[in-house]
Amino acid sequence: MSSRSENCLTRRSLLKAGVGAATMAALGGCVSDTAAELGIGTTDRTATPVADANTAFGNCWMCCHNCAQEVKVTDDGTVVGITGVDGNPRGSAGPGTEGTLCPKGLGQLDKTHDPERIKQPYIRVDGELREATWEEAFEYTAERLEAFDEEYGAETFLDAGSWAETPIFRTIWRDLYGTPERIGRGVHVCAGATFVSGSMMGIGSNNRIPDYQNSEYLIMWGRNPLESFAGQFEAKGILKAIEENNATLVTIDPQYTETAEKSDMWLPIKPRTDGALALAMANVIIEEELYDAEFVENHTYGFEAYQEAVADRTPEWAAEITDLDADAIRDIARGFAEAAPQAGISVWAGTAQTGNSWKTTQNINALNGLVGNIDRPGGLRFWKSSPIADPFEVCEWTPDDKATETTIGVDLPNNAEGKTPAFRKYDEYSDNPARHITGIAHNLVPEMVENGHINGMYCHHDMPLKDGNAEAWLKALDEMELVIAVDAYWNGITRNADVVFADATQLEKDTIGTGSWSSYSDKQWVVGGKAAVEPQFNTKPDWEILTGIAEAMGWGEYFPWEDHEEFIDDQLSKVDLTLEELSSGEANYELVGEYGYEQWRDSDGPAFKFDLDQVGPFTKAAEEAGMGTAPEWHPPGTYGDELSEEYPLEFYDIRSVFFSHGSDQGIDRLLEQFARKNDLEEKDYRGNYLHINPIDAEARDIEMGDIVTVESKTGSGELMAHVTELIKPGVVTSEYGFGEGSTQQDYEGMNTMILHDTQMDPITGQPDRHLAVEVTGGE
Amino acid sequence: MGEQWGFYFDSDKCIGCHACSVSCKQRHGRDPEQDEWRTVKNVTTGEFPDVSSLPISMSCMHCSDAPCEKVCPCNSIQKREEDGIVVVDRDSCIGCHYCGWACPYGAPTYDDGGIMSKCNLCIGEGPGGGYGMPPREEQEDGGAQPACVDNCVGGAIEAGPVSELKEKASTKAVEQFEQEPANVIVEANREDTNAFPYEA
């Protein structure tokens, strides 16, 4: 807010210079004009900007999980208030409950008017980025794309269009430009093994979000959903299960989190040994005949192999490996099995960002099949997406060459057809088992650039520099022939791009949100918002940026919609709604469908597979990686780093409640709260922190607030130490999304992936973020 | 005197996310780095692995026998008859900080000119927004929901007339409340937990 006074001395600078209150008052105008605007710093008791403002709706995109927003906007188009919408699916605990926004979501108020944003388009001329008009930027982009296709081939252009608020980027890059190269978030850099093993075993990616509200026993396995949630309904659902069902909450995490604080049991496991714990739990459950024999017998495949795999995996065996107590392992095995089917395990990134994540996740997933909690109330839920239409299929369309003939549906070409991604096409990558499973591996993109197999990239809000192998990625960015970036902030991607499109942020555009999981266990839903304010500065919503590129490329005919709202209305036509209807009235969400449990009964074949020996692509990958098809134990270091005398500490990165992926690390208000949360707000430092146990800190003469150096075999970085009893000795962690290349203006803190090289899960190519490090440099 | 208003805080529902602090600052137009009217602290005790880290959200307690009001040399601090909310008249405040010394909870904050501001239970907006405002109304009667209550993700904070808050609270919490001047009812269900109110 201080930025509002940027054209004159701020209150702060005046008073710091020792000017008293009387002088302040005498200065009048300068101070009060800006302050009165929001009723700030005045004694004007009638100034109530929030109370007097107009109401609009939105759906939060700070972490891209669609908590509904109610915003207050003044007549001059300033957002002055923001809060949640009662009863909304992602941001409340369900019907009749209060809707809220988390601190990130509240940060959208600041983000909307943040003067640090990219304010207009830029193009690179003679090596330098210079301001451009929108028309210039579109023309320049089209010229560069055409030249790129001629010289390098469109198939060497990487689509990294994640977190867009419109799906049409896929249409443009795959169908029209014709590239098969695509990197997404889920499988490629977030939780490869969680998603892929879940799908192969029969539970999809529903292993992430149990049916919280109906549950009696919840295990948060390498997850901290009270701080790092996919919509606040997760935190709210867990608290509700505790309050209403007296549910038992168990947290398995080397770090004592807010989720651990609320848990009945906290198991501070040694990192990367979760797979051993899961096998031991199964050993107890089978040994004590606590499993769902009917479900296993009639609805699963491969139980014998599983049984064999866990036969000698006793709690005592696992206790040695995991640093946990054998009795505690027995306790949670029994508690989980006895509460089933009203018992759920949640896994996501924590257990998936390791080299041995495949078997870890397979072993954990198997526990669900064992106790038969699959799509049963309080267990794992087969969340069902909302039924919306594909506008390209339902719209009225008149092709350019048939000016009078209108048809239903756009006849899109498929220009990527028959093209193979480099990962699968070239021998250079043939020693990577993951190519049987996925079309790209994040860590190998720099190598592909070096080999000339990828020569350019479209990047939308994505921050690959925080996702692994950062040093090599920075170099690769430099080498790429063409980088097109769409973003709201300057960061390592936008600063290195050839074209920068200034994206409007979420409250400045029409949006709809759909999804599966929510606080409504059996309902499908949509949430929507019309732009609450005009695009700020000289920015445009991504819809207009993408259709602008399409127009300049001569693909305008494939986008017959007047604007994004019309496109959204086509999406909503399947549920008989328009965006106007959805976002007017008291709330901006609708429940649009209902579905029951045990949906696996609707399909043939087993509901659940313990052994994946019949899954073709996996068996090939597993054979190459030297692993079996059934659950089994892979010690840390089987794939990935081993701790050594030189690098004795295990590092991995984490997330805090104040930041999501990579796009809000630059918001002052969130940085400030983050510093307060770590009790380091007095320090002149707003980067990420290295959480380290006093035992490890003292051994290195490190004190709270010291700037320390973290070094791995391949990289090093500096950040501030946060010495805390809340972390297991021998383990150090830090929040990702900071440091070099981040959206934080001065790159303060450490880019955690500077420490990283190409470590990955061999099956999915998911970066392995557990690294052997040493920490030095106490002051 | 009208009925005393206060807060209710349930530590079992607080997830330490700071949404209350952020929304308070946004409602009252306060810069990120300014001191907070509502602040969250994790009270961390023990040694690994026997640790606890209890998140506590607190603000001005709107004390029944407000020490800040008593020490204010300019009578700028007022304990309102109509709803018991403690407010400050910033026009007459001289920035002596006596209230800060007197307050056991560290609730008063001072801007760069030294003038005091603090939680006014959202009867107005901005630092000067509490003084001289009409009596506090409940939300259903048109009163603004305090920002911290409105945005508490875990539903840990509530505000209202003390008699209503007491009805929601456990006997233990009410008993403890009766012994303190602070008008905040604190639910701390866990045994052995006595971390609140902490000394700021």
Walk me through what this model shows:
- The complex is a heterodimer of chains A (779) and B (200).
- Chain A has 27 helices and 26 strands.
- Chain A is an alpha/beta fold and 779 residues long.
- In chain A, the strands form 7 sheets. Chain A has a 6-stranded mixed sheet, covered by helices on one side.
- In chain A, helix 11 links the parallel strand 8 (248-252) and strand 9.
- The radius of gyration of chain A is 26 Å and the shape is globular.
- Chain A starts with 10 loop residues before the first helix and ends with a strand.
- With 200 residues, chain B is of the alpha+beta class.
- Mean pLDDT of chain B is 91; it is low at 190-200.
- Chain B starts with a strand and ends in a 13-residue tail after the last strand.
- The longest helix of chain B is centred in the first third of the chain and has 9 residues, at 19-27.
- Chain B has a 3-stranded mixed sheet. In chain B, strands 2-3 form a two-stranded antiparallel sheet.
- Chains A and B meet through helix 1, helix 4, strand 3, helix 5 and helix 10 of A and helix 1, strand 2 and strand 3 of B.
